[in-house]
Design brief:
57% helix; 2 domains; SAM domain-containing protein; 9 helices; SAM/pointed_sf
């Protein structure tokens, strides 16, 4: 790329949705680690018991942010299981709650299980995910895309 190039269009959208965490010492390591743990959420995890151990260890080393109570419960996936049972009406309410009510018609066929698959598409094929959001699902502006991805992230926190 050229020096001082500022990406726009699809490349700008992809780069704008990325989170950069600086571990080089400009901010406290514990703070950076807490941000990384929050960003990763449950992605890539296989064993829920390991999740509880990791969360407890992060709390013990003072990773900064307090560990959510849901991660310390005997059933750490209760909240996720609840969203998997959502109906199309629940998804419409979720869109309204996240200031995305104008996109209810585009997501009218989505239920909790399809939202979960959409999360999978985001991690497996991010370029396709963002292209579909902007071309097929009607999210034309960066704020709309960012609001939607934030809401999607918050489903599993």
């Amino acid at each position: 790329m050229e020096s001082h190039y500022k990406p726009d269009g699809w490349l700008g959208m992809i780069l704008g949705a990325k989170l950069y965490i600086d571990f080089s010492g400009k901010q406290a390591f514990d703070s950076a680690m807490a941000k990384l743990i929050k960003e990763l959420g449950v992605r890539g995890r296989e064993d829920t018991q390991t999740d509880i151990v990791v969360a407890r260890e992060a709390a013990e080393v003072g990773a900064g942010a307090p560990v959510p109570a849901a991660m310390m419960s005997s059933h750490p996936l209760d909240r996720e299981a609840e969203f998997l049972t959502w109906t199309q009406e629940d998804v419409a309410k979720w869109l309204e709650k996240n200031d995305l009510g104008s996109f209810k018609s585009e997501f009218s066929e989505y239920d909790g299980k399809l939202l979960r698959r959409l999360q999978g598409v985001r991690s497996e094929a991010p370029e396709f995910f963002y292209t579909m959001l902007t071309t097929k699902m009607g999210l034309k502006t960066m704020p709309d895309v960012l609001k939607f991805t934030e809401a999607l992230d918050n489903l599993t926190i």
